[in-house]
Amino acid sequence: MSKKELLLGNFAVARGAYEAGATVATAYPGTPSTEITEYIARYDEINSEWSTNEKVALEVAIGSSIAGSRSIVSMKHVGLNVAADPFMTVTYTGVNSGLVIAVADDPSMHSSQNEQDTRYFGMAGKCPVLEPSNSQECKDYTKMAFEISEKFDTPVILRLTTRISHSQSIVSLENRITDEEIISRPYDKNPDKYISAPANARKRRVIIEERLDKLQEFANNPKNNLINVEYNDKAIGIITSGASYQYAKEVCPNASFFKLGMVYPLPKEAITEFVNTCDKVYVIEELEPIFEKEIKSWGLNVIGKEIFPTIGELSPEIIRNCLKEAGELNSESLVTYDVQEDLPVRPPVLCPGCHHRGPFYILKKLKLNVSGDIGCYTLGGVPPLSAIDTTICMGASIGMAHGFEMAKGKEFAKKSVAVIGDSTFWHSGVTGLIDIVYNKGNSTVIVLDNSITAMTGHQENPSTGKTLKGDIAPQIDFVALGKAIGIKRVVEVDAYDLEKLEEVIKTEVNAEEPSLIITKRPCILIKGIKFEYKDLQVNSEKCNGCKLCLRIGCPAISFNNETKKAEINKSLCVGCGLCVDVCKRSAIELMEKKD
Amino acid sequence: MNILIAAVGGQGAVLASKVLGKLAQNIGKDVKVSEVHGMSQRGGSVVAHVKFGDKIYSPVVERGSADIVLAFELLEGARYVDYLKEDGILISNTQKINPMPVIIGAVDYPEDITQKMAEKNINTKFVNAMDLAKESGNIKTVNTVLIGLLAKNSPISKDEWVKAIKETVPERFLDVNLKAFEMGYNLN
Ligand code: SF4
Ligand code: SF4
């Protein structure tokens, strides 16, 4: 079978795992890595799950690898921070069946809180890192990663970036392997290897260094397809990998190229030969100067971050300009049209009808200090809602609210709340909440429960009532959980009921003990959700143009500058009715319901 | 052929890029499509890059090199018009969707976009795709109306376009989409 398909990089990784005979896949969703596991879930042969966080996801995958199944775990770059603890040790214990850790970096932070280069983690953990540069390689390298993992007894990181994960190119599909000995190995009961206690770990420490040497040797051999050397014009040589390879190739089609497939450890001999063969060598890598520093440390002369930026995504344009400035290219600049400089920006916003709007509207109104968290509701931090003061990382809101109190005392705590989504709460909020109870804090924590992981595109989680595979699952009960960990004040409120919300929040922040408020309403975008749509209209007689309704920041309400009245855009409005309560003059009215 | 699709999250830019990807594959070209997911889907500004030809390296279109900028919203067209090459064409919906800073009155929606484009002699084709989409029976077909107009301005045969749409759009929406495509195709 050699069917060709246009595939997203992430889908190609999933396909690679399938063809390689993987039987276990775990993940916590995170842009740009999410689709890997979503796609894998479609294969009946692969047991897959959304884990509560990346640390758990990796631990499950380590378990299944030791038990004898090829396993893949996927996450975004910041997810690897969460999973760092098991990661740094599984590189010591090694694996039984192949273990692949797919990590998607997000240069330029298209949807992330920071920019970090996962190759550093590979180095820190002394773990090999492969980096594909198109969808075909996403598939091929995933398969190779399983083989390398087994051959060298190590987990392997498959490093992706947004541009590789989220671009589509042509991939030829093959069949899944049928070799039962590969698909299911016997359980490797080997305590000396898998109990990473000091005496064992010290022995493994030595083995790791030997393994790195062997990996380097392996990468040096062109037969193993981890390097791709093309000699053209030898005046300029370019050492690169991943998306940067594609950009550089477009800008300098005639240069000589050394493309790395394994980006850690580096094939020293082969690179040395390349550098010695070319007159001048540029290292083009996105983000950190990792290749560059190592190559320079071997005493070789290459040019890198002297001319290329360390911040953000590269592009053909950036590479072209940098090389031009360095006097290497003298092609003419492209003509570009510019219509107007200061066009209004169009930031993402909470969807019309999103239930997070209610709590944020009230928090702003009450002028509270709000420590926020990561998810759709982070969008509550921008105008007009502007209801969030801080966002650090998944789960941080709760601990930070406690920190506010540690710093400023009880009275300050009465003006502060933490907000966190349901998925994020399961991810790493629950431990913070236990910390507050245990350490006798008084914080108020609001869980915005929309029963889904919405930001990344609606993945199931422990409050959904369904698993990744669509099976019915227990829905974990916030109220019972709150009580069980010792919170006496647990209240559930309808997120659309502004009056009740305001009353509850006021009471709970004033209570001198911890409170847990759960605002409930499923995300309006969940398929098959029952929702009573209202047909609303602004009564222009009653509307006096006060613009109060605009403060809830619903994209469906706008102000008509000619009539000086508010307007509801019917193609966007979902009829949640929230704006009705906000208007002081009852100008937003319910129309006769058309079906 | 380099095409840049500029849209507002939720307008169907991803589906449009899929149609183009399928089309390129069907006519035997190498093709790369790139888009950024995540935040941008919540009504933010989104852009998809489609490139096809004999051999494609970079999945992103370079500024000043797009043959076509296909804008689903007027302001987004202006935002990405700098991707257009000198003799490229901007095909744009005239529909306006106010971004949040405009909604809350922090800034105004620029009124003179089309005029400024004319001043710069940009080759433009404007269409009220929203009205045509309504007429086709589903307001969500704005993207297909615009694909119709794009098809008319491309060297690729109409049959190929129709085939790509048939292979991409889900069965139950196919009829309205084909109708919307025709409407776009039959404009001037
Ligand atoms: S996806 Fe759901 S939770 Fe996210 S902004 Fe939209 S309605 Fe709100
Ligand atoms: S009812 Fe009001 S708040 Fe809700 S979606 Fe419509 S305009 Fe927005």
UniProtKB/TrEMBL annotation, chain A:
<keyword id="KW-0813">Transport</keyword>
<dbReference type="InterPro" id="IPR029061">
    <property type="entry name" value="THDP-binding"/>
</dbReference>
<comment type="subunit">
    <text>Heterodimer of the IorA and IorB subunits.</text>
</comment>
<dbReference type="Pfam" id="PF00037">
    <property type="entry name" value="Fer4"/>
</dbReference>
<protein>
    <recommendedName>
        <fullName>Indolepyruvate oxidoreductase subunit IorA</fullName>
        <ecNumber>1.2.7.8</ecNumber>
    </recommendedName>
</protein>
<dbReference type="Pfam" id="PF02775">
    <property type="entry name" value="TPP_enzyme_C"/>
</dbReference>
<dbReference type="GO" id="GO:0043805">
    <property type="term" value="F:indolepyruvate ferredoxin oxidoreductase activity"/>
</dbReference>
<keyword id="KW-0479">Metal-binding</keyword>
<keyword id="KW-0249">Electron transport</keyword>
<dbReference type="InterPro" id="IPR009014">
    <property type="entry name" value="Transketo_C/PFOR_II"/>
</dbReference>
<keyword id="KW-0004">4Fe-4S</keyword>
<keyword id="KW-0560">Oxidoreductase</keyword>
<dbReference type="InterPro" id="IPR045025">
    <property type="entry name" value="HACL1-like"/>
</dbReference>
<feature type="domain" description="4Fe-4S ferredoxin-type">
    <location>
        <begin position="534"/>
        <end position="562"/>
    </location>
</feature>
<keyword id="KW-0411">Iron-sulfur</keyword>
<comment type="function">
    <text>Catalyzes the ferredoxin-dependent oxidative decarboxylation of arylpyruvates.</text>
</comment>
<keyword id="KW-0408">Iron</keyword>
<dbReference type="Pfam" id="PF01855">
    <property type="entry name" value="POR_N"/>
</dbReference>
<dbReference type="InterPro" id="IPR002880">
    <property type="entry name" value="Pyrv_Fd/Flavodoxin_OxRdtase_N"/>
</dbReference>
<feature type="domain" description="4Fe-4S ferredoxin-type">
    <location>
        <begin position="564"/>
        <end position="593"/>
    </location>
</feature>
<dbReference type="InterPro" id="IPR011766">
    <property type="entry name" value="TPP_enzyme_TPP-bd"/>
</dbReference>
<dbReference type="InterPro" id="IPR017896">
    <property type="entry name" value="4Fe4S_Fe-S-bd"/>
</dbReference>
UniProtKB/TrEMBL annotation, chain B:
<dbReference type="InterPro" id="IPR052198">
    <property type="entry name" value="IorB_Oxidoreductase"/>
</dbReference>
<dbReference type="InterPro" id="IPR019752">
    <property type="entry name" value="Pyrv/ketoisovalerate_OxRed_cat"/>
</dbReference>
<protein>
    <submittedName>
        <fullName>Indolepyruvate ferredoxin oxidoreductase beta subunit</fullName>
        <ecNumber>1.2.7.8</ecNumber>
    </submittedName>
</protein>
<dbReference type="GO" id="GO:0043805">
    <property type="term" value="F:indolepyruvate ferredoxin oxidoreductase activity"/>
</dbReference>
<dbReference type="Pfam" id="PF01558">
    <property type="entry name" value="POR"/>
</dbReference>
<feature type="domain" description="Pyruvate/ketoisovalerate oxidoreductase catalytic">
    <location>
        <begin position="9"/>
        <end position="186"/>
    </location>
</feature>
<dbReference type="InterPro" id="IPR002869">
    <property type="entry name" value="Pyrv_flavodox_OxRed_cen"/>
</dbReference>
<keyword id="KW-0560">Oxidoreductase</keyword>
